[in-house]
Amino acid sequence: MRHLYTSLLAVVFLLGATLPGRAFSLMGPPASWQTSAIGYNLAADVGAPMNLSEEYRITMPTLNYGYDATFLNFFGSNGVVAVEAAMAILNAIPDVRTMSSTLTEFPLQAIGPANSTAANLQIRDLKSATLSTVLGQMGLASPERWVFSLRDRIVAGNVTNYLVIRRNFDPVTWTPTNTVNSVLYTYTVRDPVLNQATTFADAVESPADGRTVNPFLSVAGVDDGGGLAAGQFFTSLTRDDFGALRYLLRFNNVNTEQITLGTPGAGGSGITLVPFDSPFSFPSGTNGSNTISTNLPIDLARRPGIGKVSFRSLPIDSLLGINILPVTNRYTDFYYHPTNLYLTNQNLQRVSTLPDILFTAGDLSTGQIVISNGVPVAVPPLLSRPTSSRWINNAGLPGNSSIGGVGTAPGPGVIPEGDGTSVAIPIIFDTLGSARINFQSGGARFLDERSAVLNGVWGFFDTTTIYSVFPDGLTIQDLERQLYGP
Is residue 6, in this structure, part of any structural domain at all? Predict the structure, then answer.
Protein backbone atom coordinates (compact mmCIF):
# COMPACT_ATOMS: atom_id res chain seq x y z
CA MET A 1 0.00 0.00 0.00
CA ARG A 2 2.85 2.34 0.87
CA HIS A 3 4.57 1.39 -2.42
CA LEU A 4 1.35 2.16 -4.35
CA TYR A 5 1.04 5.50 -2.57
CA THR A 6 4.64 6.36 -3.46
CA SER A 7 4.03 5.40 -7.09
CA LEU A 8 0.96 7.58 -7.28
CA LEU A 9 2.94 10.51 -5.89
CA ALA A 10 5.55 9.94 -8.59
CA VAL A 11 2.88 10.00 -11.30
CA VAL A 12 1.40 13.19 -9.88
CA PHE A 13 4.87 14.76 -9.78
CA LEU A 14 5.56 13.82 -13.39
CA LEU A 15 2.21 15.18 -14.54
CA GLY A 16 2.90 18.39 -12.69
CA ALA A 17 6.34 18.64 -14.27
CA THR A 18 5.12 18.07 -17.83
CA LEU A 19 1.82 19.96 -17.71
CA PRO A 20 2.52 23.43 -16.31
CA GLY A 21 -0.50 25.22 -14.89
CA ARG A 22 -2.36 27.58 -17.17
CA ALA A 23 -5.81 29.10 -17.34
CA PHE A 24 -8.15 31.49 -19.10
CA SER A 25 -11.20 33.56 -18.18
CA LEU A 26 -14.27 34.39 -20.26
CA MET A 27 -16.12 37.70 -20.34
CA GLY A 28 -19.71 38.81 -20.76
CA PRO A 29 -22.26 41.28 -19.44
CA PRO A 30 -22.49 41.08 -15.63
CA ALA A 31 -25.03 38.63 -14.24
CA SER A 32 -27.59 39.89 -11.73
CA TRP A 33 -25.47 38.76 -8.77
CA GLN A 34 -22.24 40.31 -10.12
CA THR A 35 -22.60 43.67 -8.41
CA SER A 36 -20.07 46.39 -7.64
CA ALA A 37 -20.42 45.65 -3.91
CA ILE A 38 -18.44 42.41 -4.40
CA GLY A 39 -15.97 43.60 -7.03
CA TYR A 40 -17.79 43.38 -10.37
CA ASN A 41 -19.04 45.95 -12.87
CA LEU A 42 -16.62 48.62 -11.71
CA ALA A 43 -16.13 51.92 -13.51
CA ALA A 44 -13.39 50.80 -15.93
CA ASP A 45 -14.66 47.25 -16.57
CA VAL A 46 -15.73 45.93 -19.98
CA GLY A 47 -17.67 43.03 -18.47
CA ALA A 48 -17.61 40.31 -15.83
CA PRO A 49 -16.21 36.76 -15.73
CA MET A 50 -18.45 34.05 -17.17
CA ASN A 51 -18.70 30.37 -16.35
CA LEU A 52 -18.11 27.65 -18.93
CA SER A 53 -20.95 27.51 -21.49
CA GLU A 54 -21.80 31.15 -20.72
CA GLU A 55 -19.21 32.57 -23.12
CA TYR A 56 -19.68 35.41 -25.59
CA ARG A 57 -17.92 35.22 -28.93
CA ILE A 58 -17.51 36.88 -32.31
CA THR A 59 -19.38 35.09 -35.11
CA MET A 60 -18.12 37.11 -38.10
CA PRO A 61 -14.89 35.65 -39.56
CA THR A 62 -13.63 39.06 -40.73
CA LEU A 63 -13.91 42.40 -38.94
CA ASN A 64 -12.95 45.71 -40.53
CA TYR A 65 -10.96 48.36 -38.71
CA GLY A 66 -9.76 51.87 -39.46
CA TYR A 67 -8.57 55.20 -38.09
CA ASP A 68 -10.32 58.55 -37.90
CA ALA A 69 -8.92 62.07 -38.21
CA THR A 70 -8.43 62.51 -34.44
CA PHE A 71 -6.17 59.44 -34.31
CA LEU A 72 -4.21 60.45 -37.40
CA ASN A 73 -3.76 64.03 -36.22
CA PHE A 74 -2.37 62.98 -32.82
CA PHE A 75 -0.56 59.72 -33.56
CA GLY A 76 0.23 60.22 -37.25
CA SER A 77 1.55 57.53 -39.55
CA ASN A 78 3.83 56.19 -36.78
CA GLY A 79 0.75 55.52 -34.64
CA VAL A 80 -0.76 53.57 -37.52
CA VAL A 81 2.43 51.48 -37.69
CA ALA A 82 2.12 50.67 -33.96
CA VAL A 83 -1.52 49.60 -34.25
CA GLU A 84 -0.83 47.61 -37.41
CA ALA A 85 1.88 45.72 -35.49
CA ALA A 86 -0.75 44.67 -32.94
CA MET A 87 -3.26 43.67 -35.61
CA ALA A 88 -0.56 41.63 -37.37
CA ILE A 89 -0.11 39.58 -34.18
CA LEU A 90 -3.86 38.96 -34.05
CA ASN A 91 -4.03 38.03 -37.74
CA ALA A 92 -1.17 35.56 -37.22
CA ILE A 93 -3.23 33.55 -34.71
CA PRO A 94 -3.76 30.16 -36.36
CA ASP A 95 -7.14 28.57 -36.84
CA VAL A 96 -7.86 26.97 -33.47
CA ARG A 97 -8.48 23.63 -35.18
CA THR A 98 -4.75 23.45 -35.97
CA MET A 99 -3.61 24.00 -32.36
CA SER A 100 -2.18 21.05 -30.46
CA SER A 101 -4.09 19.53 -27.56
CA THR A 102 -1.51 20.75 -25.03
CA LEU A 103 -0.83 24.19 -26.61
CA THR A 104 2.87 23.71 -25.89
CA GLU A 105 3.78 25.34 -29.21
CA PHE A 106 2.81 28.69 -27.65
CA PRO A 107 4.89 30.65 -25.09
CA LEU A 108 4.07 31.05 -21.42
CA GLN A 109 5.81 34.42 -21.44
CA ALA A 110 5.06 37.17 -23.98
CA ILE A 111 6.57 40.25 -22.30
CA GLY A 112 9.81 41.23 -24.00
CA PRO A 113 12.84 42.54 -22.11
CA ALA A 114 11.94 46.05 -20.96
CA ASN A 115 13.25 49.19 -22.61
CA SER A 116 14.97 51.01 -19.75
CA THR A 117 14.86 54.43 -21.43
CA ALA A 118 11.13 54.11 -22.07
CA ALA A 119 10.66 53.05 -18.45
CA ASN A 120 12.57 56.07 -17.13
CA LEU A 121 10.61 58.43 -19.37
CA GLN A 122 7.25 56.82 -18.49
CA ILE A 123 6.50 55.76 -22.08
CA ARG A 124 3.75 53.17 -22.53
CA ASP A 125 3.48 50.92 -25.56
CA LEU A 126 0.63 51.74 -27.95
CA LYS A 127 0.95 48.39 -29.73
CA SER A 128 0.54 46.36 -26.52
CA ALA A 129 -2.45 48.41 -25.36
CA THR A 130 -4.13 47.83 -28.73
CA LEU A 131 -3.42 44.10 -28.58
CA SER A 132 -4.84 43.56 -25.10
CA THR A 133 -7.87 45.79 -25.63
CA VAL A 134 -8.95 44.07 -28.84
CA LEU A 135 -8.69 40.71 -27.05
CA GLY A 136 -11.07 42.06 -24.43
CA GLN A 137 -13.52 43.00 -27.17
CA MET A 138 -13.28 39.41 -28.44
CA GLY A 139 -14.68 38.00 -25.18
CA LEU A 140 -11.52 37.34 -23.13
CA ALA A 141 -11.39 38.43 -19.49
CA SER A 142 -8.36 38.78 -17.23
CA PRO A 143 -7.41 35.36 -15.80
CA GLU A 144 -5.11 36.99 -13.24
CA ARG A 145 -7.98 39.06 -11.86
CA TRP A 146 -10.57 36.28 -11.83
CA VAL A 147 -8.54 33.37 -10.46
CA PHE A 148 -10.66 33.98 -7.36
CA SER A 149 -13.77 36.10 -7.04
CA LEU A 150 -16.61 36.60 -4.61
CA ARG A 151 -19.91 34.89 -5.27
CA ASP A 152 -21.57 36.43 -2.25
CA ARG A 153 -21.02 38.47 0.90
CA ILE A 154 -23.39 37.54 3.73
CA VAL A 155 -23.60 39.25 7.10
CA ALA A 156 -25.11 37.12 9.89
CA GLY A 157 -25.14 38.85 13.24
CA ASN A 158 -21.61 40.06 13.89
CA VAL A 159 -20.08 37.66 11.35
CA THR A 160 -19.38 38.52 7.71
CA ASN A 161 -19.11 35.49 5.42
CA TYR A 162 -17.49 35.48 1.97
CA LEU A 163 -18.19 32.81 -0.64
CA VAL A 164 -15.14 32.57 -2.92
CA ILE A 165 -15.28 30.92 -6.35
CA ARG A 166 -12.92 30.51 -9.32
CA ARG A 167 -13.65 31.81 -12.80
CA ASN A 168 -10.37 30.63 -14.26
CA PHE A 169 -10.24 27.47 -16.39
CA ASP A 170 -7.50 25.17 -17.65
CA PRO A 171 -7.48 25.36 -21.49
CA VAL A 172 -6.88 21.61 -21.83
CA THR A 173 -9.15 20.09 -19.17
CA TRP A 174 -11.48 23.10 -18.66
CA THR A 175 -11.40 22.52 -14.91
CA PRO A 176 -11.18 25.52 -12.56
CA THR A 177 -7.60 26.26 -11.59
CA ASN A 178 -5.58 28.72 -9.53
CA THR A 179 -2.66 29.10 -11.94
CA VAL A 180 -2.10 31.36 -14.96
CA ASN A 181 0.76 30.70 -17.38
CA SER A 182 2.40 28.41 -14.75
CA VAL A 183 2.20 31.01 -11.94
CA LEU A 184 0.32 29.82 -8.83
CA TYR A 185 -2.02 32.37 -7.24
CA THR A 186 -3.58 32.75 -3.81
CA TYR A 187 -5.98 35.38 -2.47
CA THR A 188 -6.84 37.60 0.47
CA VAL A 189 -10.37 38.87 1.01
CA ARG A 190 -10.25 42.63 1.43
CA ASP A 191 -13.23 44.56 2.65
CA PRO A 192 -13.21 47.35 1.74
CA VAL A 193 -10.89 47.73 -1.23
CA LEU A 194 -9.85 51.35 -1.62
CA ASN A 195 -8.71 51.61 -5.22
CA GLN A 196 -11.83 52.86 -6.93
CA ALA A 197 -14.21 55.75 -6.57
CA THR A 198 -16.44 53.44 -4.50
CA THR A 199 -15.52 50.82 -1.91
CA PHE A 200 -16.22 47.13 -2.36
CA ALA A 201 -15.21 43.69 -1.13
CA ASP A 202 -13.02 41.45 -3.25
CA ALA A 203 -10.86 38.34 -3.21
CA VAL A 204 -7.61 40.01 -4.22
CA GLU A 205 -5.15 37.72 -6.03
CA SER A 206 -1.40 37.63 -5.60
CA PRO A 207 1.28 35.16 -6.75
CA ALA A 208 1.71 32.49 -4.09
CA ASP A 209 5.50 32.72 -4.29
CA GLY A 210 5.40 36.39 -3.31
CA ARG A 211 6.82 37.73 -6.57
CA THR A 212 6.07 41.42 -7.14
CA VAL A 213 7.00 41.48 -10.85
CA ASN A 214 5.25 38.87 -12.97
CA PRO A 215 6.71 38.36 -16.48
CA PHE A 216 4.05 35.73 -17.24
CA LEU A 217 1.08 38.10 -17.43
CA SER A 218 -1.49 37.13 -20.05
CA VAL A 219 -2.22 39.68 -22.77
CA ALA A 220 -5.93 39.52 -21.93
CA GLY A 221 -5.05 40.26 -18.31
CA VAL A 222 -4.08 43.88 -19.01
CA ASP A 223 -7.07 44.84 -21.14
CA ASP A 224 -6.41 48.58 -21.43
CA GLY A 225 -2.61 48.27 -21.20
CA GLY A 226 -2.68 49.41 -17.57
CA GLY A 227 -1.21 46.18 -16.25
CA LEU A 228 2.04 46.77 -18.10
CA ALA A 229 4.60 49.09 -16.58
CA ALA A 230 6.15 51.89 -18.59
CA GLY A 231 8.85 50.44 -20.82
CA GLN A 232 7.21 46.99 -21.03
CA PHE A 233 5.66 45.53 -24.18
CA PHE A 234 4.16 42.31 -25.54
CA THR A 235 5.79 40.37 -28.35
CA SER A 236 2.93 37.88 -28.86
CA LEU A 237 0.01 36.27 -27.08
CA THR A 238 0.63 33.85 -24.20
CA ARG A 239 -0.33 30.20 -24.08
CA ASP A 240 -3.40 30.98 -21.98
CA ASP A 241 -4.59 33.64 -24.45
CA PHE A 242 -4.43 31.07 -27.23
CA GLY A 243 -6.27 28.59 -25.00
CA ALA A 244 -9.10 31.05 -24.39
CA LEU A 245 -9.55 31.67 -28.10
CA ARG A 246 -9.54 27.94 -28.75
CA TYR A 247 -12.32 27.41 -26.23
CA LEU A 248 -14.43 30.19 -27.76
CA LEU A 249 -13.90 29.46 -31.44
CA ARG A 250 -13.49 25.67 -31.58
CA PHE A 251 -15.77 23.86 -34.04
CA ASN A 252 -17.32 21.63 -31.37
CA ASN A 253 -18.48 24.64 -29.35
CA VAL A 254 -21.99 24.66 -30.80
CA ASN A 255 -24.50 27.32 -29.70
CA THR A 256 -27.81 28.49 -31.08
CA GLU A 257 -27.19 31.87 -32.72
CA GLN A 258 -29.15 34.26 -34.88
CA ILE A 259 -27.48 36.30 -37.59
CA THR A 260 -28.65 39.81 -38.43
CA LEU A 261 -30.38 39.72 -41.79
CA GLY A 262 -30.25 42.54 -44.31
CA THR A 263 -32.27 43.41 -47.37
CA PRO A 264 -30.61 42.02 -50.50
CA GLY A 265 -28.91 44.84 -52.38
CA ALA A 266 -29.35 47.38 -49.58
CA GLY A 267 -25.88 46.97 -48.09
CA GLY A 268 -24.65 48.11 -44.73
CA SER A 269 -27.72 46.89 -42.90
CA GLY A 270 -27.08 43.24 -42.26
CA ILE A 271 -26.14 39.88 -43.79
CA THR A 272 -27.43 38.57 -47.12
CA LEU A 273 -26.76 35.62 -49.37
CA VAL A 274 -24.00 36.00 -51.93
CA PRO A 275 -25.83 36.79 -55.20
CA PHE A 276 -26.22 33.72 -57.40
CA ASP A 277 -24.64 35.51 -60.36
CA SER A 278 -21.55 36.33 -58.26
CA PRO A 279 -18.34 34.41 -58.93
CA PHE A 280 -18.18 33.95 -55.14
CA SER A 281 -21.48 32.04 -55.16
CA PHE A 282 -21.40 28.28 -55.44
CA PRO A 283 -23.78 25.45 -54.50
CA SER A 284 -24.02 25.07 -50.74
CA GLY A 285 -25.89 23.16 -48.09
CA THR A 286 -29.42 21.82 -48.04
CA ASN A 287 -30.73 25.36 -47.96
CA GLY A 288 -30.75 25.71 -51.75
CA SER A 289 -34.47 25.43 -52.53
CA ASN A 290 -35.35 27.73 -49.66
CA THR A 291 -32.83 30.42 -50.58
CA ILE A 292 -33.82 30.45 -54.25
CA SER A 293 -37.42 31.21 -53.35
CA THR A 294 -36.85 33.63 -50.47
CA ASN A 295 -33.38 34.98 -51.24
CA LEU A 296 -32.80 35.05 -47.48
CA PRO A 297 -30.33 32.96 -45.50
CA ILE A 298 -31.15 30.71 -42.59
CA ASP A 299 -30.76 33.08 -39.65
CA LEU A 300 -31.63 31.06 -36.50
CA ALA A 301 -29.69 27.81 -36.15
CA ARG A 302 -27.19 25.84 -34.12
CA ARG A 303 -23.72 27.03 -35.16
CA PRO A 304 -20.18 25.82 -34.40
CA GLY A 305 -17.28 28.11 -33.59
CA ILE A 306 -15.76 29.85 -36.60
CA GLY A 307 -12.17 28.80 -35.86
CA LYS A 308 -10.49 32.14 -36.51
CA VAL A 309 -11.21 35.86 -36.58
CA SER A 310 -9.32 37.99 -39.10
CA PHE A 311 -8.99 41.77 -39.12
CA ARG A 312 -9.05 43.79 -42.34
CA SER A 313 -7.75 47.34 -42.53
CA LEU A 314 -9.89 49.85 -44.39
CA PRO A 315 -8.11 52.42 -46.56
CA ILE A 316 -7.23 55.48 -44.49
CA ASP A 317 -8.26 57.92 -47.21
CA SER A 318 -11.79 56.56 -47.25
CA LEU A 319 -12.23 57.35 -43.57
CA LEU A 320 -11.20 60.98 -44.08
CA GLY A 321 -13.75 61.60 -46.82
CA ILE A 322 -17.43 62.43 -46.57
CA ASN A 323 -18.56 59.22 -48.24
CA ILE A 324 -17.01 55.92 -47.23
CA LEU A 325 -16.79 53.32 -49.95
CA PRO A 326 -18.71 50.13 -49.10
CA VAL A 327 -16.60 47.10 -48.22
CA THR A 328 -17.96 43.60 -48.80
CA ASN A 329 -16.88 40.63 -46.67
CA ARG A 330 -17.93 37.21 -47.95
CA TYR A 331 -17.72 33.97 -45.98
CA THR A 332 -19.12 30.46 -45.62
CA ASP A 333 -21.52 30.04 -42.70
CA PHE A 334 -21.70 26.53 -41.23
CA TYR A 335 -24.83 25.55 -39.30
CA TYR A 336 -26.99 22.58 -38.38
CA HIS A 337 -30.09 22.80 -40.49
CA PRO A 338 -33.19 23.41 -38.34
CA THR A 339 -35.32 20.78 -40.12
CA ASN A 340 -32.96 17.81 -40.33
CA LEU A 341 -30.03 18.80 -38.03
CA TYR A 342 -27.49 18.00 -40.75
CA LEU A 343 -24.35 20.10 -40.83
CA THR A 344 -24.57 22.30 -43.90
CA ASN A 345 -23.49 25.73 -45.06
CA GLN A 346 -24.52 28.84 -46.93
CA ASN A 347 -22.47 31.56 -48.63
CA LEU A 348 -23.08 34.92 -47.01
CA GLN A 349 -21.89 38.48 -47.37
CA ARG A 350 -21.97 41.67 -45.32
CA VAL A 351 -21.58 45.10 -46.87
CA SER A 352 -20.06 47.63 -44.45
CA THR A 353 -19.93 51.40 -44.78
CA LEU A 354 -18.27 51.90 -41.39
CA PRO A 355 -15.45 49.97 -39.71
CA ASP A 356 -16.33 47.51 -36.95
CA ILE A 357 -13.32 48.76 -34.93
CA LEU A 358 -12.43 52.43 -35.11
CA PHE A 359 -9.20 53.71 -33.57
CA THR A 360 -9.64 57.28 -32.45
CA ALA A 361 -8.14 59.72 -29.94
CA GLY A 362 -9.41 62.22 -27.38
CA ASP A 363 -8.92 63.86 -24.00
CA LEU A 364 -9.90 61.30 -21.35
CA SER A 365 -8.39 63.19 -18.45
CA THR A 366 -11.25 62.50 -16.02
CA GLY A 367 -9.38 60.63 -13.30
CA GLN A 368 -9.87 57.11 -11.98
CA ILE A 369 -8.72 56.16 -8.50
CA VAL A 370 -5.65 53.95 -8.04
CA ILE A 371 -3.36 53.33 -5.07
CA SER A 372 0.12 54.89 -5.20
CA ASN A 373 2.32 54.07 -2.19
CA GLY A 374 -0.79 53.37 -0.14
CA VAL A 375 -2.50 56.64 -1.10
CA PRO A 376 -5.56 56.90 -3.41
CA VAL A 377 -4.59 59.01 -6.44
CA ALA A 378 -6.74 60.10 -9.38
CA VAL A 379 -4.95 59.32 -12.65
CA PRO A 380 -6.17 59.65 -16.24
CA PRO A 381 -7.19 56.44 -18.02
CA LEU A 382 -5.02 55.23 -20.87
CA LEU A 383 -7.93 54.59 -23.19
CA SER A 384 -11.67 54.09 -23.43
CA ARG A 385 -13.47 51.17 -25.03
CA PRO A 386 -17.06 49.87 -25.13
CA THR A 387 -18.50 47.78 -22.34
CA SER A 388 -20.24 44.46 -22.94
CA SER A 389 -23.69 46.01 -22.50
CA ARG A 390 -24.32 45.76 -26.26
CA TRP A 391 -23.42 42.05 -26.38
CA ILE A 392 -26.41 39.78 -26.99
CA ASN A 393 -27.40 37.08 -24.49
CA ASN A 394 -28.71 34.04 -26.37
CA ALA A 395 -29.56 31.95 -23.31
CA GLY A 396 -33.23 32.16 -24.23
CA LEU A 397 -32.77 30.60 -27.66
CA PRO A 398 -33.68 26.90 -28.10
CA GLY A 399 -30.82 24.57 -27.32
CA ASN A 400 -28.78 26.95 -25.20
CA SER A 401 -28.23 26.84 -21.47
CA SER A 402 -31.49 28.21 -20.09
CA ILE A 403 -34.31 25.87 -19.10
CA GLY A 404 -37.57 26.23 -20.96
CA GLY A 405 -36.33 29.19 -22.97
CA VAL A 406 -36.63 31.55 -20.02
CA GLY A 407 -33.31 33.26 -20.80
CA THR A 408 -32.25 33.93 -17.22
CA ALA A 409 -28.75 32.45 -17.60
CA PRO A 410 -25.85 34.89 -18.13
CA GLY A 411 -24.99 33.30 -21.50
CA PRO A 412 -24.02 32.01 -24.00
CA GLY A 413 -24.14 34.95 -26.33
CA VAL A 414 -22.57 36.78 -29.24
CA ILE A 415 -20.52 39.93 -29.74
CA PRO A 416 -22.26 41.75 -32.60
CA GLU A 417 -20.40 43.33 -35.46
CA GLY A 418 -21.18 46.79 -36.82
CA ASP A 419 -24.63 47.30 -38.29
CA GLY A 420 -23.65 49.78 -40.98
CA THR A 421 -25.05 52.79 -39.13
CA SER A 422 -22.64 52.97 -36.18
CA VAL A 423 -19.16 51.78 -35.19
CA ALA A 424 -19.40 48.69 -33.00
CA ILE A 425 -16.06 49.10 -31.21
CA PRO A 426 -14.64 52.62 -30.93
CA ILE A 427 -11.29 52.51 -29.09
CA ILE A 428 -10.29 55.97 -27.88
CA PHE A 429 -6.67 56.56 -26.87
CA ASP A 430 -6.00 59.35 -24.39
CA THR A 431 -4.29 62.45 -25.79
CA LEU A 432 -3.48 64.16 -22.48
CA GLY A 433 0.24 63.65 -22.92
CA SER A 434 2.84 64.26 -20.24
CA ALA A 435 1.31 65.47 -16.96
CA ARG A 436 1.98 65.66 -13.23
CA ILE A 437 -0.46 64.58 -10.53
CA ASN A 438 -0.49 66.35 -7.16
CA PHE A 439 -2.62 65.42 -4.14
CA GLN A 440 -3.14 65.97 -0.45
CA SER A 441 -4.36 63.45 2.08
CA GLY A 442 -4.75 63.32 5.86
CA GLY A 443 -2.94 66.56 6.36
CA ALA A 444 -0.06 65.53 4.09
CA ARG A 445 0.42 67.89 1.17
CA PHE A 446 2.12 66.83 -2.04
CA LEU A 447 1.45 69.94 -4.04
CA ASP A 448 4.76 71.02 -5.53
CA GLU A 449 6.51 69.88 -8.70
CA ARG A 450 9.08 67.77 -6.87
CA SER A 451 6.44 65.67 -5.07
CA ALA A 452 4.19 65.16 -8.11
CA VAL A 453 3.43 61.74 -9.59
CA LEU A 454 4.40 61.60 -13.27
CA ASN A 455 1.82 60.47 -15.80
CA GLY A 456 3.21 58.71 -18.88
CA VAL A 457 2.87 59.20 -22.61
CA TRP A 458 2.21 56.85 -25.51
CA GLY A 459 5.07 55.43 -27.54
CA PHE A 460 6.15 52.52 -29.71
CA PHE A 461 9.35 50.65 -28.88
CA ASP A 462 11.15 47.38 -28.44
CA THR A 463 13.93 46.41 -26.04
CA THR A 464 16.62 48.53 -27.65
CA THR A 465 14.85 51.16 -29.77
CA ILE A 466 12.15 53.78 -29.19
CA TYR A 467 10.62 54.20 -32.65
CA SER A 468 8.05 56.84 -31.80
CA VAL A 469 6.81 59.05 -28.97
CA PHE A 470 3.36 60.62 -29.23
CA PRO A 471 1.92 63.07 -30.08
CA ASP A 472 3.53 62.47 -33.44
CA GLY A 473 6.65 64.57 -33.76
CA LEU A 474 7.48 64.62 -30.04
CA THR A 475 11.11 63.61 -29.55
CA ILE A 476 12.77 61.92 -26.62
CA GLN A 477 14.64 65.18 -25.99
CA ASP A 478 11.33 67.07 -25.85
CA LEU A 479 9.97 64.54 -23.37
CA GLU A 480 13.06 64.75 -21.16
CA ARG A 481 12.72 68.54 -21.01
CA GLN A 482 9.02 68.26 -20.12
CA LEU A 483 9.72 65.80 -17.33
CA TYR A 484 13.03 67.00 -15.94
CA GLY A 485 13.45 70.55 -17.21
CA PRO A 486 16.03 72.06 -19.61
Answer: no
Q: On the CB side of 278, how many CA atoms lie within 13 Å of its CA? A: 15
Using an 8 Å Cβ cutoff, are 324 and 353 in contact? yes
Cα angle 176, 191, 179; round to 5: 20
Q: How far apart are CA 436 and CA 100, in angstroms?
A: 48
Q: Which residues of the chain have pLDDT under 50?
A: 1-19, 280, 282-293
For residue 359, being part of any structural domain is answered with yes
Whether omega for the bond prior to residue 398 falls within 30 degrees of 0, making it cis, is: no
Q: Residue 384, Cβ neighbours under 10 Å: how many?
A: 17
Cα distance between residue 242 and residue 220, in whole Å: 10
b/e for 414-424, b at 16 or more Cβ within 10 A?
bbbbbbbeebb
- Per-residue confidence (pLDDT) for residue 4, from 0 to 100: 36
Residue 308 lies in domain: 22-260+299-314+355-484
Q: What was the pLDDT predicted at 18? A: 39
Is 141 in contact with 388 (CB distance < 8 Å)? no
Question: pLDDT tens-digit profile of 284-311?
Answer: 444 443 433 457 899 999 999 999 999 9
pLDDT of residue 167: 95
* Domain presence at residue 244: yes
Of 355, 350, 330, 352, nearest in space to 271 by CA: 350
What stretches of 231-289 adopt beta strand conformation (E)?
Answer: 255-258, 271-273
- Sign of the dihedral through C-alpha 280, 285, 288, 294: negative
Q: How many helices (H) and strands (E) does the chain have?
A: 8, 30
Q: What is the pLDDT of residue 320?
A: 58
| 105 and 99 Cβ atoms separated by less than 8 Å | yes
Instruction: Give the total number of structural domains in the chain.
Output: 1
Q: What is the DSSP secondary structure assignment for residue 114, as one 8-state letter?
A: P
Reduce the DSSP state of residue 368 to 3 states and report it: strand
Whether residue 102 is contained in a domain is answered as yes
Residue 263 has a pLDDT of: 65
pLDDT tens for 222-237 read 886 667 889 999 999 9
